[in-house]
Structures are given as C-alpha cells and as structure tokens.
Amino acid sequence: MAIGETFLGLLESRPRHGYDLKRAYDERFGQGRALAYGQVYATLSRLLKSGLIEVHGIEPGGGPERKRYAITDAGVTDVQRWLTQPEKPDLYLQNTLYSKVVLALLTGRPAADILDTQRAEHLRLMRELTRRKSTGDFPDQLICDYALFHLEADLRWLELTAARLDQLAKEVSA
Amino acid sequence: MTAPRDALISAIDLHKAFGPTPALDGASLEIAAGEVVAIMGPSGSGKSTLLHCIAGITTPDSGRIVYRGRELSGMSDATRSALRRGEFGFVFQFGQLVPELSCLENVALPLRLDGHKRREAERRAASWLDRLEVGDVAHKRPGEISGGQGQRVAVARALVTAPRVVFADEPTGALDSLNGERVMKLLTEAARDTGAAVVLVTHEARVAAYSDREVVVRDGRTREVELMNR
Amino acid sequence: MTGPESLGDTDEPGIGPKNLGGADELGRGLTAPGRVGVRRWFADLALGGRLALSGGRESWTRTTLTAVGVGLGVALLLLSAAVPNILASRTERISARDDLRLSQSEIKPGDRTLLVSDFDTTYHDRGIRGRVLRAEGPAAPRPPGVAKLPGSGELVVSPELGKLLAAPEGALLRERLGGTIVGTIGDQGLGGPLEYAFYLGSDTITAGDGGARRIDGFGSQYEREGFDPVLLILIVIIFVVLLLPVAVFIGAAVRFGGDRRDRRLAALRLVGADGAMTRRIAAGETLLGTLLGLGVGAVVFLAGRQLVELFTISDMTVFAADVQPTLGLALLIALTVPAAAVAVTLLALRRVVIEPLGVVRHAGATRRRLWWRLAPSALGLALLTPLIGGVSQTGPAANEYQVAGGVVLLLLGVAALLPWLVEAVVARLRGGAVPWQLATRRLQLSSGTSARVVSGIAVASAGAIALQMVFAGIGAGYTTSTGQDPNRADLQFSLRNPAGHAASEAIAARFRDTAGVRSVTSYTTVYATGTTTPAGPDVPPAAGTVLIAGCAALLELADLGRCADGDVFVRQPSGEPGEWPGPGEEVLFGDSEDPDARRWTVPATAPTVAVRPDPMGNMPAILATPGALPAGDLRAGRTEIYVGLDPARPDAIEYARNTAAGISTSMSIYQLTDRQESTRFTTIRRGLYLGAILTMLLIGASILVSTLEQLRDRKRLLAILVAFGARRSTLSWSVLFQTAVPVGLGLALAVGTGIGLGAVLMAMVNRPVRVDWGSIGLIGAVAAGVVVLVTALSLPALWRMMRPDGLRTE
Ligand SMILES: Nc1ncnc2c1ncn2[C@@H]1O[C@H](COP(=O)(O)OP(=O)(O)OP(=O)(O)O)[C@@H](O)[C@H]1O
Ligand SMILES: [Mg+2]
Predict the structure, then answer these.
(1) Could you tell me which residues come within 8 angstroms of residue B13 by beta carbon, excluding any fewer than 6 positions away?
(2) For chain B, what percent of residues have pLDDT higher than 90?
(3) Is this model's pTM higher than 0.90 or not?
C-alpha cells in the first residue's frame, strides 16, 4: 500500500494534522486495520524530507501531533504522476486501485481515466498471455489461463467500479 | 486525432441519437488494415451503434466515416449494400443463420448475394467450413447444430467473401468460455491469414485479449486509451 | 371455475416472462389440489379465454384477427343460409300476384271479375312489368300491394318506377305509359325492392278478341317452373365451390398467430401446465376468438344485408327483410363453427410438442401419407361415375345428394392432396437463384401452412373451372341459335288483327312516321289447318302459316317471278306428304276447334315457289296478296311489323316502343337477336365469377396475414441479411416465390381436378367434353393477381423490417 501517496492525496484538498490524516486514512482505506502512529509519523517525516509536504503551522502545546502539514507543489506533481501511472497487474491490487480512484474523486481528477488506463495495462498483459497460450504447450496454456482468469476478475471489478463511479463520488464527498 | 497513414476506416466525431437518447455522442475511431480492434464499454454505451455506423448499416446523424478514401455517409443505400456484400463480413451474437438453409448454403449465401455461381460459392463455402472445423455439419440445418458450431459457421460465412473487414458484435456472447475462445482463435487466425481487419465488440476481457488494441466507448464517446497505451 | 381470486386481476399484461400474460395466475390455479374432471376442464378453457383477452397486445391482436376472420366467414355462411328464404319469399311474392288463368273453365263477367292485359315493356334495358286492369264490378279483385284499383288513365307504380318517371331520364317512358300516378305498389306486390312495375287502369280493354284475360282473383294455383335438374346440380356445386373455401378460410383464421400462441403455451408449461392442459387452454383461446367471431359475423351479416337492396342481378333484386337465414341452418352454423375451430386447433397441436423450453415441430418427422389423401377424390369419382349419361334437362330429378356428395368429395380431395403435393414437389426443388432458394427452402421446412391456406384457392379454382366447362358445354343447349336475322330488322311488333291487311298497313304507316325508324315491313299472318283427313293415324294434318302482304314485301321472302294483287303462292313441298296445304286444298283459319272458323281453299292454280325465312326465322307455307282472300276471313289474323332502326339514334327503339304503346298496350314487341342465352345462366355465371374472385380475395387476405406474421417473426434475420448486403429486391422476390409456388401448385392441381370434374359432369348430362381454356386462363389470372397483391401488400412491412434496428436483441 502506498501510504505516502495516499497521504499526499488527502493533503491536497486541505492541510491536516497528523492525527487527522491517520483518521481519514483509517476511515477510507484502513479496512478495519488502523495505521500505527509510528508508521504515520515515519511516513510524514519521509515526505517532509523529500520536500513533498511542509509544516503549515504548529499549534502551541508542543508534541508531534500538534503540527499541521500541507502539500507542496512537488507533492501535487507526485500525486498526479502516481495516479496516472497504471499499476503493474498483480493479484490483490485492488486496494491500491481503490485508493487511487477515491483519491482521484476527492481531488477532482477524472477517476474514469484511472480505470481505463489500468484496463489498458491489464489488457496488454492479457494479450501477451493469450499469445503465449496459443504458442505454448498444454501446461503452459493452463498456467496462462489461470492468470488470465484472475486478470479478468480484476477487470470485472474495474468495470463495475467504473459503472458506479457516480455513486462512489457521492459517498466520498459526503 | 490524426489518422495513421494506412487507416482503412476512419470515423470522425460521430453523433447518433434515437429520439432523445444519444447513442453516439462524439465517437471517433480508426482501423488500420489487418488489425484486430476490440470495442469495449459498458452495456448501452453505444458499441453496437458505433459498429453499425462504421459498417454502413446505419448512418450517423453527423460526423464522417471514410472507408479507403471514400466517404461512407455520401453513398446511396445500394452502394453501401454492395460494399457490405463485397468487402465486409459480419458475425453476430446469435440467430444469424437462415434457419431453412443448410449450413453450407448459409455460408455460400454472401457469395451468392454477390452474384457468384452456386457451385463455385458452395465449393468455397465448404473449404471454409473445413477450416473452421465444422465441415461435418455442412448439410445440417442451423436448428440441428450446437451454438458453438453455429458461431463457427457464422464466422465461416463472414470470411467466405475474403472481406477486408469483419465486424463482430459479441460473437461469443452466447457461448461458454472454452467455445468462445475457440471461436475467437479461429476468427482472429483466419483474419490474420487473409489480411482482414476485425472490429470486435465485446465486454469480455478474455475475448478482447485476442485483439491488437482496444477502444473504450463510454456514454457514446470513445476514450483515447490508445494514446495512453503508447 | 378456478375461483375469482385466481382469475381476478389480469389487467397488467406483458409482465414477467416474455409474452406470458397470466402465467403466475396459472401457477396459482395449478396449486388447487384435487380439481379433476369437468370442472378442471372448464377452468382450463376459461383460462384460455382469459389469456386470449388479457395476455397483452400480442394475444388480443391474435384474438381480433381470429374474430374478424371467423366473422367474415360466418357472415358469408349466414348469407348462404339465407338463400333458401330469399328464393322462397321471392317465389311467394311472384306467385301471389300471378294473373294467368290457363285452361280453366270460363269465368262469367260479374261483380267480382277483372280484365287484365299485359303491358310489359322495356325502357333503356330495364325490364318493366306492366298490366292494364279494368274492373267489371265493384268487388273486382285487387293485385297484392295495391290499395285501390286505378281508374281509367290512372297509374299505380312501384317506387323504383315512380322515381324513374319523375326523373328527366324517364320522359319517353312517361309518354309511353300516359296516365297520372295515383298510388304506389306496396312491397308485398313486388318481386324485389328495385323492381319496375305498374298497373294502368283502363275502361276500353275487352276480353276475347280484345286480348284481355278475365280473372276473379290473383295468385297462382300452379306449381311454378322450378329449376331443372341440371341447373339444380349446378347450383348445388356452386354452393360447394364457394363455401368450401370459406371453411378453409375459417380454418386458417383460427390459426392466425398460432406460432406465437405456441410459444406462449411453452411459457405456461414452464410454470407447470401439462400437455393436456395446454391443449385445453389453446382450445379455450380459440373458442373465445371464434365466439367473438360469431358475434362479428352476425353484426357484419345484419349490416351487410341492408346493402343487398342496392344490387340488381339480371333484373332481380332482393328485399333486405327476405335475407333471413333459415333457423336450422343458422343454428348449425352457430354450433359447427366453434366446434370445428376447436377441432382444428387440437389437430394443429397434434403436430406440435409444446415443451417448457420451447416448441418442437414435427414437420419433417411424419411424412404425409398419400393414400388417405387420395381417398376423398376416389370416393367422389366412385359416386359420380354411375351417374354418367343419366341426367338430362327434361328427365327426372337427378339424385342431387349423390352429385353434391361426389363433387364435395372430389373438391375436398384437392384440399387433402395439396399439402402432400406441395411437400413432394418442394422437396425436389434444388438450387436456383438466391430468392428462389430462400423461398423453396422455407417451404421445405414448413409447407403445411401455405398449402393449407392455398387449398382454399385451389378448391375455388377447381370448382370454378369445372363449372365454366359445364356452362360452356351445356350452354350449347341453353344458348340457342334463334334463326333470327337482326340484319333485316331490329324489332318485331305483333298484334291480333281481325280486320285484314289494310289495318296492318295502317299500323305500319304509324311506324314509318316514327323518329329513328329506317325501314318498316308489314305482314298479316293467319294460321291455317288443312281439312283433309290425314293419311294415317300418326300423320298430323297439313298446316302452316298464310302470310299476306303486298307484292314488294312478298318479294323479300321468295322469288315470285310475276306478282299482282290477287295472286297466291305455295311453298315448294319438301317431299313428305301432308306437311302443309298445297294448291286446291281446303283449310280452316285459326283455331280448328272454333265452330266459327273460316274456311278457304288454296287456289288450284297457285304456283309453288322457293320460300326464304322471314326475319324471325319462320317459313310461311302460303304467300298471298291482300286481294286473294276477303278481309272478313282473317278474324284470327295477326299483324306482324318488322322495323329497322337508325343506329345513329340511340333512342330510336324507345320511340318505336312508344308508337307501339300508342297503338295498343297489348302489342307484343320482340327484339331480334341471332343468339340467345338462358338468362338463368348469365346470372349463375356472373355470380360464380364474382364468388370465385371474392373467395380468392378472402384467401388472399389470410395468406397476407400469415406472410406478415412470418415476416414479423423473422425481423432479426431480415436485418442480418441486410447487414450482409442483401438487396431489397432479393428478399421481395423470395416473398413472392414463397406465395407463388404453393399457389401455382394449387392451381395446377385445380386445373387437373377441375377439368376432370368438368368432364365427368359433362358426361353425366351427355354433352361432349370441351375444355374452356378461356376461363382457365381467367381464373389463373385472378390467382396470379392475388399472389401479386399479397406480395405487394407485404412489401412495405418487409422493407420496414429490413432496417438495422432489427439487429438489436429483443
Ligand atoms: N434502434 C434503437 N432505437 C432506440 N434506441 C436505441 C436503438 N439502438 C440503440 N438505442 C439506444 O442507444 C444506446 C446505445 O445502444 P447500443 O446498442 O449501441 O449499446 P451497446 O453498447 O451495444 O450495449 P450492449 O453491450 O448492451 O449491447 C442505448 O441507450 C440504446 O437504448
Ligand atoms: Mg450491443
């Protein structure tokens, strides 16, 4: 899971406290497993170090949780790059894809494009497998079919998501 | 969108509405000779309508379709029919074989519509049936064969005129995956051998995987995925 | 009944499984346990009836088609059932006003007697029945429909004649009849509503030599001349020929939309109906459509019979009130039609297995067997052949039942053979151009429907061909060569003339003064019988006509050599003794029983001459100049005037008739023709053609319905063929062939059977067999016209369906 990119996306709409970020992340993407504070701050400091975020203001009282973070221009570019770049087709990648779609919706980017891009990537791989299938021997064919069916399942999910983007957008912005 | 130099068909900014519903709302597409293009998209997005337009079956309300340098929209119905007879082939999802003709006669039908002699037409039809591995049902009627066999007969019929383009709308829609893939394999291989381009409407990724490239239609608009592909 | 709760709310058609109105309704009906027997049976029938109404647009379209089709058929059947009544009422009216008193003991003049003389006339080709009446006392009888006897110079006219006389067109007729109209003849005194008839009052006509009849009442005491046996057989056959196709049509109407119905029934099986239930439900559906059809038929019949009064068939018109089906026949129709409809439905379902997942047709599986299809024809022939040579025009009534039975069976044989023939021939058709291939293959797959429908056309054609042959053949017996010569004169006027030839000349002079008359020849004739006792018991006495005229007129009839007033000439004897009186023989003029009959001796010096027939074709035996015999001897004589008309004056004939009426109302007028056809035949023939054309149109309508149905079912396929670039013309031709092939085969069978049947019928009445190719051609042309019409009417639908939206999956 790309926690860094997700934080960046969440910060794009407005600056947040670290605690805020964790809560927003857990709510939308945590799927019941909350992020550890340590992980949150480690990620934030990595992002700070890379210059993708900056500290927007410190509220009196001290302690790391009092800091508010904001995204930098470099950070916005990074989110953009991340979103438009298709994921390598892989098993169980829908979590990442899901995050991308939600973030795109949150930041007002065209979510359908993400899905189409991903579909293109999937199909590219599926074509390759199909070609291999037609030249390969029988066990090869079976292995290819296994992969093909899984990829197809991904694509089905993509298709379904694409068809329900409007609904998702409503929920996300709620 | 700039056309590749070897574009066989280019469709530019097609619009088509049925009453208040826009079926096509600015669809553009290019097909090069000999390539297999999958048209994908959710149900009701306008895939079939797009296919019918570029195959000259329906005319779009606006937009241009150029086939080998000739404007399709300017042609008379008779000319377009002649074009479909001579240069295009079609495969549909089901129910496309004439029930009272034998499979052989069904396959020979496009040739005969184009004015070929019966004997010659049936000879060519028979060889295509063999090639699609359904030579044994040549003298049966469509009602007496399985769906998969029927689709193969339909593919043979689409290819028998040695068309430049085969249009296939959900050709495997009514088949199980094994039969579907078999039909796709035979279709694409035969098309590659004869140099025919294939325009394939499908919503199944595994079927689309037999294509060289896909075009996504959404709400009547094509999305320029191919640009991202490159 | 299944109960109101399960047959209740069906107002939402077309939900659930496709086209399955009321399936869940049935589902509920099915759960009722233990309902067996008659109640179950009625419940199924009732369910079928409800489905026919509430099964969505689809099923009420079907019900409407069936109802309208059956209705048309029933209306025709009711009309036929009314024919006996029409004929009976007409005969009754006509015999009620009959005023002939032949060979009755003489009636003495008195208070209750009436003098009648005929004044029938023709005006612009309309036949007009006219009588001159003179009451001899206050209690003189009145003809039916006449409230008060017309006084001298007064007219009582039929409504139609009244209209004609009032119109400008009737000017010449007004002149002819004279008189003032004082009344109208009521319906009970008329043969038909459009009849032209009048009664003219007179105080001058006299009985006896005056030519009038004395009667003491109206109404015939005699049997009227019935149709002779040959005609009766013809009429029976005509009914068979016209009604069988109606039956075929009803059969087809019952099956309208059958394919879709079967698919609906398959959906019913899916929710649990068994095979027997689906059949009962189908029967219920048909029954409802047919019952509605009976209603439609009754309405069409009642509305249609009002139109009957507008038509005239060879001077015969019919009162709407007389068009009333015989009760028995009407009941028969009301019972047979629904029963037959149900039987047809069940028979049709026999070939079909309705499975829950669809309909399986046994089309190819059971091959049609030939032998039982030949049986009706063979039986029919067996019935007819013994009658060969046994029926004549004058002979005893033929066994109509046997004839009708034979004919019906032969014609039914056509209907039975046709499906086999179509199947057998179509199965052998191979190749051909694409439209031909499409059509023949389609027929190979299911030829039954088209063959069944076409059998209606075949039966009608076979019957019509046979009848035309019979007409053409028997026509020689009824269409007589009259021997008349219309080139010499157009009209013959004749009148009793007791006053001698001078009176004839006076009459001729009045015709000469008439506008439009070109030539006038006048003769006086008297019938003469020789007084010499015949040579043997079997030899009739010599007799012949004595014709008196001036030398110029006589020269037209014979080469006289020299002729002067006072000369007499005798026709050259033919060689047989005692044919007509010769020179020196004594003869009686007029009625030889009459004690006052005048005697006259043919001058012994009279030369014999070769005589030619007069324009009427008669040969006088003796030609005499007026001076040869005293005028007083000619008490029994007649004036005969031959008038030639100016063809350039179309009304010349009416002027001549007016002149005749001005001379005497009882002058008889004869229009010369060289050929004469029995008018009964012209009527029958015209009726037959009309009936055959109507029948074919009716059948054409049912072919059209089934073609349209088929096209609708093949919408998607048509669209796909269009995608493949099939031309409109290709598919249009295939529709044409698809109709033309069965019709062509049906016609071929019909020609064969028709000629065969015609030949047998001709042999039956001892006439030489002659094939009437003209009428065969005509009937073929009508059938071809029907095919073209059906195709033309289905083309718009075809073209509409050849649009790409048919590609969309439904
Ligand atoms: N002949 C027609 N009449 C009315 N509406 C039509 C017609 N053809 C298409 N449409 C409408 O146009 C839109 C696009 O239809 P089209 O058949 O092209 O979709 P599709 O992408 O092929 O869908 P599917 O995957 O279900 O086949 C749909 O909303 C459809 O209802
Ligand atoms: Mg479609």
Answers:
(1) B26, B27, B28, B62, B63, B64
(2) 32
(3) no
